[in-house]
Automatic annotation (TrEMBL):
Domain Major facilitator superfamily (MFS) profile: from-to ranges: 1-406
Keywords on record: Cell membrane, Membrane, Transmembrane, Transmembrane helix, Transport
Annotated protein name in UniProt: MFS transporter
TM segment ranges: 9-27, 33-57, 69-87, 133-157, 169-188, 221-239, 259-277, 289-307, 313-334, 346-368, 380-402
Pfam families reported in the protein's UniProt record: MFS_1 (PF07690), Sugar_tr (PF00083)
C-alpha cells in the first residue's frame, strides 16, 4: 500500500501540474486553448502506453515473480518523475523540453501499466479466500494517498510562493521530491517476500510460457468484464482531479487552491471509506459492491453537476465528497472483483492488461470532456454525460461479474485454468 501510494504520488503530480502549468510552460506557442488541449493529451499519452507496460510487466510478473516486477515498476516511475523536474521549458530551450516531457510521460505510463496488478496480487495472494476482498481494497488506498500528498504539496507551494516564482521554478520542487521517495519505495519492496501463490506456481512447474495469449484464449469474456468494471473507478479520478480542476478555474471562477483543498478533503474521506467498502465486499462479494457504486453514481451524476454551477466553496466541497464516495465503492472493490475472474498462472497479466486498457480509455476523459464542453458552450451538464456513460458500463460489467463463479486463489492443477470463458 505504501509503495503504491508513493508511485501514485509521482503520477498524480503530473495530473495537477498539467491542469495549470504544462500548457504555458511547454506548449505556449499553441495558444491558450491549444496548449490546454495538448496538456490534457499528454495525460492521455501515459495512459495509451499503459497496456504496453502491462504486457511487459505482466509477463515478468507471471514468469519472474510479483516482487521482482514491482521493484522495476517503482524504479522507473521514480526516475522519470524526478527528471521531469529538471526539464527546460519552452522559453529556455524551445520544443526540446516538450519532446523530453513526452518521452518521460511514456516511461511513467509503462511503469504504471505493471504497478496495479502486482500490488493487488501481493495483497490478495498473501491472504485467505475469506479476507481476499478486504485485502484487495487496501492497495486501493494508494490512489487517494498519492492524490492527497500531491495536492498538499501544491497547496503549500501556491500558498508560500508568488505565482511568478511558482511558474518560474517552484513547479519543479514536487517532481524532484520523487527521487528521495524512490529510495523509500525501493526499500519497502525489497523487504517483502514473494507470494505463496507464485511460489506454488514455480514449484509445480505451472508458469505459462505466454500468459498474454493464454488469458485471451481462456478468459475472453472475463477480460471484457474486467475492463468495463474498471472504467468508472479510474475514469472518475481523471474527471474529478484533472478536468474539474481546470474547469473550476476557467469556467466557474474558483481559485486553483480552493479546488486542491476540495479534492484533498475528498481524498481524506476515502482513507476511511475504502477499507469500509473492502470489508463490505468481504461480506457480500466484490462484484456487488462495484455494482452498487456504479448505480449510485449514475443516480447522482446530473444533480451533482447542476449544483456545482452555483459556484460556492461549500457546494464544491460537497460535490467532491458525494462525487467521490460512490465511485469509490466501485474503486475499493475493483481489485477483488478482477482477482476473482482469473486463475493464478496468468493472473498478473490479466489484471494488469485489463486495468491498463480501462485506464487508457479513462486517460482521454479530460480531453473528451473539454471537447464536449466546448461544443455545448460549457453547459452545466456536459461533465455529467461522460460520468453517466462510465457508470452505466461499469454497472453492466459488475452485474455480469457477479454471475460468474469465483476462481480459486491457488489452482492445484493446470486444467483448472482451461475452463471456457
Amino acid at each position: 500500500m505504501v509503495g503504491t501510494s508513493l508511485e501514485s504520488f509521482d503520477f498524480y503530480l503530473y495530473a495537477y501540474f498539467s491542469a495549470f502549468f504544462v500548457g504555458p510552460l511547454f506548449f505556449d506557442p499553441l495558444g491558450e486553448v491549444g496548449a490546454t488541449s495538448v496538456a490534457f493529451l499528454t495525460i492521455a499519452l501515459a495512459f495509451v502506453v499503459r497496456p504496453v507496460g502491462a504486457l511487459i510487466f505482466g509477463y515478468m510478473g507471471d514468469r519472474l515473480g510479483r516482487r521482482a516486477t514491482l521493484l522495476w515498476t517503482v524504479a522507473l516511475m521514480g526516475v522519470a518523475t524526478g527528471l521531469i523536474g529538471l526539464l527546460p521549458t519552452y522559453a529556455q530551450a524551445g520544443w526540446l523540453g516538450a519532446v523530453l516531457l513526452i518521452l518521460l510521460r511514456i516511461v511513467q505510463g509503462l511503469s504504471l501499466g505493471g504497478e496495479w496488478g502486482g500490488s493487488i496480487l501481493i495483497a490478495t495472494e498473501n491472504s485467505g479466500p475469506v479476507k481476499r476482498a478486504f485485502y484487495a481494497a487496501i492497495p486501493q488506498l494508494g490512489s487517494p494517498v498519492g492524490s492527497i500528498l500531491s495536492a498538499a504539496v501544491f497547496i503549500v507551494l501556491t500558498a508560500v510562493l508568488p505565482a511568478e516564482q511558482m511558474a518560474e521554478w517552484g513547479w519543479r520542487i514536487p517532481f524532484l521530491l520523487a527521487l528521495p521517495l524512490l529510495l523509500v519505495s525501493l526499500y519497502l519492496r525489497w523487504s517483502i517476500t514473494e507470494t505463496p501463490v507464485f511460489t506454488g506456481l514455480v514449484t509445480e512447474g505451472r508458469r505459462d510460457r505466454v500468459p498474454f495469449v493464454t488469458m485471451f484464449a481462456k478468459r475472453p469474456g472475463a477480460m471484457a468484464i474486467a475492463i468495463g468494471a474498471a472504467l468508472l473507478g479510474i475514469g472518475s479520478y481523471s474527471l474529478m482531479n484533472t478536468y474539474t480542476v481546470n474547469y473550476g478555474v476557467a469556467e466557474l471562477g474558483f481559485s486553483f487552491q480552493d479546488l486542491l483543498i476540495a479534492t484533498t478533503i475528498g481524498g481524506l474521506l476515502q482513507l476511511v471509506t475504502i477499507p469500509l467498502f473492502g470489508a463490505w465486499a468481504s461480506r457480500i462479494g466484490s462484484a456487488r459492491v462495484v455494482l452498487w457504486g456504479a448505480l449510485g453514481t449514475l443516480v447522482i451524476t446530473f444533480p451533482m453537476y447542476f449544483l456545482l454551477q452555483f459556484a460556492t466553496f461549500p457546494i464544491l466541497v460537497a460535490t467532491m465528497i458525494v462525487g467521490g464516495i460512490l465511485p469509490t465503492m466501485a474503486w475499493a472493490a475493483l481489485g477483488g472483483l478482477m482477482n476473482d475472474l482469473f486463475p493464478d498462472r496468468f493472473r498478473y497479466s490479466a489484471l494488469s492488461f485489463s486495468y491498463a486498457l480501462a485506464a487508457t480509455i479513462s486517460g482521454f476523459v479530460p480531453y473528451l470532456t473539454l471537447q464536449l464542453g466546448s461544443a455545448t458552450g460549457f453547459a452545466w451538464w456536459h461533465p455529467g454525460v461522460i460520468l453517466a456513460i462510465m457508470s452505466a458500463i461499469t454497472l453492466v460489467s459488475a452485474w455480469l461479474a457477479a454471475r460468474r463463479p469465483v476462481e480459486p486463489e491457488l489452482a492445484t492443477e493446470p486444467e483448472t485454468a482451461t475452463v471456457a470463458a
